[in-house]
């Protein structure tokens, strides 16, 4: 363990030292135009390199045979080429990922299972080193289809639910990106490999409203090295309608959505009530979100609601579930550091009775789960999350965020879940892990801090630390007197 910690400290120092060798400039752009195409078109290139070192200390006593303390490192490089014209556009993005030092001895017997995210990467790959070169995105854009405002995209692309419409208002955009989007569908952007979606996207952008729909199949990715493969056993249909911010109602955005999810991989190791429930998973999800801001003399109030209900089939069982979130906050625009204090409560259904022929655990589909669990040992399934949050801006280029979460299971008869959706089309890995509660509901209290700094348009960095104080559910599985820790340091260079 001491050797691993020494390697982690050395690698962190090397990453910090690299700051001195990167040229900073305030004139960088997100993409570089290479040449003009015709009178209005252009051909551009963009790229980025992300380097991240992560350290995990999982919930387990020191005398266990498995390794709960480890760190791993990865780099992810992307190069994108785009063609933009009045009636057609094209984009292709190549991604290269290299990972090192994945833990070889951090998979414990059930119910303990994988001891952190590094163990899940190793479980997918079966090797402490991983590398992947893929075509991550490749699509054609048709900015105008038949009528003005109607557009189409065909190929492999990203989809982030809740971000169908964005605005010039930075506060509204932050709330949409950080507190509303990707709860159910997203590219799993925090993971090393990410996921993409193969299919078609249609959008109609009208005065005051937006209609958006996709019909896709996700790629593998996330924790899976072979991220280019399409998961042909999963079908996803999305349909959303957005009443734009400050158009229909003052300083308010409203959105309704419907998602159809069909998983016919028939993986037997499916965590669910009553044990293993092999068979198709077909889920209809209906939901809405509402966002409002209100300016006063000294600052801005924000309020948001997100809710969803589900019905369908979970193998041989009927599926009925629900989830909701209610949040609010106030940012002072005149006080030092511009403090933004927020709080909220999220709750999702769990299964009340394993023997009643129903599956009542809210299913999170294909999300970017870490947006709502920065210490990702839990997710939005059978979960209650009461949180307080403070965001400070010492200067325009620096953001400090601190969260305090009080976590419980909603139903003690159900499981403690973690994960961010399917990552393999075949091979037996379902995508979510469920651990028994042994009759308890108290999961953990988490304190976490993330500091982000933008050095220039070329370069940024962020550092995260979170500590989880394990409660009854975790204590029933692990000897977790010391709790759990997660630390990450990430640098991003882009042009």
Q: How is this structure best described in words?
A:
The structure is a single chain. With 495 residues, the chain is mainly β. The protein has a single domain (2-494), classed as Beta Barrel (Porin). It has four helices and 24 strands. The strands form three sheets. The chain has an 18-stranded antiparallel barrel. The longest helix is centred in the first third of the chain and has 16 residues, at 2-17. The two termini are 39 Å apart.
What sort of overall outline do the alpha carbons produce when their principal axes are compared? globular
How far from one another are the termini? 39 Å
CATH topology: Porin
* CATH top level class name: Mainly Beta
Structural class: mainly beta
Number of DSSP E strands? 24
Gyration radius, rounded: 22 Å
By DSSP (H or I, 4+ residues per run), the number of helices equals: 4
Number of domains: 1
Contiguous low-pLDDT stretches (5 residues minimum) are 13-29
User: What percentage of the residues does DSSP assign to strands (E)?
Assistant: over 45%
> Order of helices and strands, N to C?
HEEEEHEEHEEEEEEEEEEEEEEEEEHE
What is the CATH architecture descriptor?
Beta Barrel
Output mean pLDDT: 90
Largest sheet at a glance? 18 strands, antiparallel, barrel
């Amino acid at each position: 363990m001491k050797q691993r910690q020494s390697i982690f400290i050395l690698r962190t120092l090397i990453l910090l030292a690299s700051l001195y060798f990167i040229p900073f400039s305030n004139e960088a752009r997100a993409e570089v135009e290479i040449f003009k195409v015709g009178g209005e078109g252009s051909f551009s290139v963009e790229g980025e390199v992300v380097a991240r070192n992560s350290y995990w200390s999982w919930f387990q006593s020191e005398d266990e045979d498995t390794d709960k303390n480890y760190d791993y490192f990865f780099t992810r490089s992307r190069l994108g080429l785009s063609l933009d014209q009045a009636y057609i556009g094209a984009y292709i993005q190549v991604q290269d990922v290299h990972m090192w030092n994945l833990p070889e001895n951090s998979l414990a017997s059930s119910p303990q299972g994988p001891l952190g995210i590094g163990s899940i990467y190793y479980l997918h790959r079966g090797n402490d080193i991983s590398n992947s070169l893929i075509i991550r995105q490749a699509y054609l854009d048709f900015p105008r289809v038949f009528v003005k405002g109607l557009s189409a995209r065909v190929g492999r692309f990203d989809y982030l639910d809740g971000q169908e419409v964005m605005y010039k208002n930075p506060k509204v955009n932050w709330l949409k990106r950080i507190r509303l989007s990707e709860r159910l569908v997203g590219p799993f952007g925090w993971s090393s490999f990410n996921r993409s979606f193969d299919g078609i996207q249609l959008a109609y952008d009208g005065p005051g409203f937006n209609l958006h729909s996709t019909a896709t199949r996700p790629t593998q990715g996330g924790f899976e090295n072979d991220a280019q493969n399409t998961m042909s056993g999963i079908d996803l249909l999305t349909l959303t309608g957005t009443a734009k911010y400050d158009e229909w109602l003052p300083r308010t955005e409203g959105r309704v959505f419907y998602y159809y999810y069909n998983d016919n991989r028939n993986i037997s190791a499916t965590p669910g009530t009553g044990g293993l429930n092999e068979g198709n998973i077909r889920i209809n999800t209906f939901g809405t979100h509402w966002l409002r801001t209100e300016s006063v003399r000294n600052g801005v109030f924000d309020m948001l609601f997100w809710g969803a209900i589900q019905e369908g089939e979970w193998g041989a069982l009927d599926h009925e579930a629900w989830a909701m979130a209610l949040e609010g906050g106030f940012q002072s625009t005149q006080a030092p550091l511009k403090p933004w204090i927020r709080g909220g409560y999220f709750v999702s259904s769990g299964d009340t009775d394993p023997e009643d022929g129903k599956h009542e655990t809210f299913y999170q589909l294909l999300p970017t789960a870490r947006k709502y669990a920065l210490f990702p040992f839990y997710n939005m399934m059978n979960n209650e999350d009461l949180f307080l949050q403070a965001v400070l801006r010492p200067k325009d280029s620096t953001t400090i965020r601190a969260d305090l979460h009080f976590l419980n299971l909603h139903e003690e008869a159900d499981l403690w879940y973690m994960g961010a959706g399917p990552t393999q089309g075949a091979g037996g890995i379902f995508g979510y892990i469920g651990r028994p509660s042994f009759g308890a509901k108290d999961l953990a209290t988490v304190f976490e801090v993330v500091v982000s700094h933008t050095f220039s348009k070329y370069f940024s960095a962020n550092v995260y630390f979170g500590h989880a104080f394990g409660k009854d559910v975790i204590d029933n599985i692990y000897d977790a007197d010391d709790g759990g820790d997660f630390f990450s340091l990430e640098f991003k260079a882009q042009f």
